[in-house]
Q: What sequence folds into this?
């Protein structure tokens, strides 16, 4: 994962009670390159952390180093469920919904717990280099194999010693890592180190790396991201899905801002929603000078409206580390929605300059619902033979103008290019053409 150390490549606004509408598209994490995903299931001081790797390349080249607050025993490490994480991403993704105008000539009608650990594996051996034995002041606190991963838990007294140990054991450490490692050592943090066991991986038959899951108890509610910025090329995206029992999660050392939401956009966005969502997020990041964390979703897991995917079942949530559920496990397997689970989806784009500190979180008592939601309103295309038709065309024209302005403002797209893709209603002969309405808008503004 890029916010930790991938050692072959890098070190690692408004409340709406009911939205309704018909869901037609979503913007998930897969739309972003260099994007990492983390699930944090937390209650009191207990945390289960699930990490999805976005590593691409030879499996034997993969390795990850993660600062952790305690020495993790084998029983605290597990292989996560990728399908459940993908379902959570889809469920919380920003979404597009659509409505359809009625015939303006018609009479008004009412809208009508953690899985069992893997079997014991042989103790890992690490050969010393030839020559005199070196004193790295590094201690292997634990070693074991879980699934396709060979795992070490290290403690260290000095950053230089830890860096040299990693390099001498064929871990590629970029320049500048010593300072960041040293700051974690001074906090008495340990280091979770994982490599792919190619033999075990081939036996299991997977052609991708499954998520790593760790459980620990600590008053620190945080996520280390600084190691991943040491030799990162440009910026990185991180999606955090926080599962808690009380309410919404936010960052305490960076501002948490709600993504602009609940706005009408032109209907052609139905076929371009992925590009729209990425452009919208780019614009918001620039607006905040890349110094904010964005809330994209906050909702009780019991229900959704509209749903970009079905709520996760209790069984799926247990696979993602939600350990405080006490409902019937047999009922959980038939997609029964879970109670007492609140999900917060946070999206951050970061680099070393703008995010010099690790992310620190807090759980709040805020259970207000929020989602990144964008609305398509389809115009009536049938015959309109009544006095109300003229008024409808006027209102529709004004609405389309506003949608064009909104889309341009949200994405930074050229308003002229946006307007060309919008179908304005035909006008009676005595009314002006709408093709260049925006020119008059800017002219009046300047005057």
A:
């Amino acid at each position: 994962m890029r916010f930790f150390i991938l050692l072959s490549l890098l070190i690692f606004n408004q409340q709406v009670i009911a939205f309704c509408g018909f869901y037609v598209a979503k913007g998930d994490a897969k739309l972003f390159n260099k994007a990492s995903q983390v699930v944090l299931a937390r209650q009191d001081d207990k945390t289960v952390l699930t990490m999805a790797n976005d590593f691409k390349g030879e499996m034997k080249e993969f390795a990850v180093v993660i600062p952790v607050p305690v020495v993790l025993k084998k029983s605290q490490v597990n292989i996560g469920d990728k399908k459940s994480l993908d379902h959570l991403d889809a469920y919380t993704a920003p979404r597009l919904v659509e409505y359809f105008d009625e015939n303006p000539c018609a009479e008004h009608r009412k809208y009508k717990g953690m899985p069992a650990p893997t079997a014991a594996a042989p103790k890992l051996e690490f050969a010393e280099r030839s020559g005199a034995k070196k004193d790295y002041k590094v201690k292997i606190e634990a070693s074991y194999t879980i699934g396709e991963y060979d795992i070490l838990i290290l403690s260290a007294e000095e950053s230089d010693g830890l860096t040299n140990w990693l390099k001498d054991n064929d871990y590629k450490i970029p320049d500048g890592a010593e300072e960041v490692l040293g700051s974690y050592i001074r906090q008495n943090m340990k280091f979770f180190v994982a490599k792919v066991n190619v033999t075990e991986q081939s036996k299991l038959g997977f052609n991708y790396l499954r998520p790593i899951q760790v459980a620990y108890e600590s008053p620190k509610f945080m996520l280390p991201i600084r190691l991943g910025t040491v030799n990162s090329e440009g910026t990185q995206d991180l999606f955090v899905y926080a599962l808690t029992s009380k309410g919404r999660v936010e960052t305490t050392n960076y501002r948490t801002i709600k993504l602009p939401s609940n706005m009408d956009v032109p209907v052609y966005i139905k076929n371009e929603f992925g590009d729209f969502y990425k452009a919208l997020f780019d614009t918001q990041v620039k607006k905040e000078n890349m110094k904010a964390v964005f809330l994209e979703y906050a909702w009780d897991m019991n229900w959704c409206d509209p749903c970009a995917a079905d709520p996760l079942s209790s069984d799926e949530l247990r696979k993602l580390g939600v350990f405080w559920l006490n409902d019937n496990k047999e009922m959980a397997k038939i997609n029964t929605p879970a109670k007492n689970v609140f999900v917060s989806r946070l999206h951050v784009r970061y680099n070393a300059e703008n995010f010099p500190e690790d992310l620190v979180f807090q759980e709040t008592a805020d259970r207000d619902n929020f989602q990144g939601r964008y609305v398509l309103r389809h115009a009536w295309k049938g015959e309109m033979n009544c006095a109300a038709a003229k008024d409808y065309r006027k209102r529709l024209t004004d609405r389309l103008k506003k949608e064009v302005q909104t889309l341009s403002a949200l994405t930074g797209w050229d308003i002229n290019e946006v307007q060309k893709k919008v179908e304005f209603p035909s006008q009676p002969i005595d009314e002006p053409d709408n093709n260049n309405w925006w020119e008059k808008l800017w002219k009046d503004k300047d005057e």
User: Anything to note?
Assistant: The chain has two domains: 5-12+18-114+129-375, 381-446. Residues 11 and 348 are 18 Å apart (CA to CA). The mean pLDDT is 82. The first strand starts at residue 5 and ends at 6.
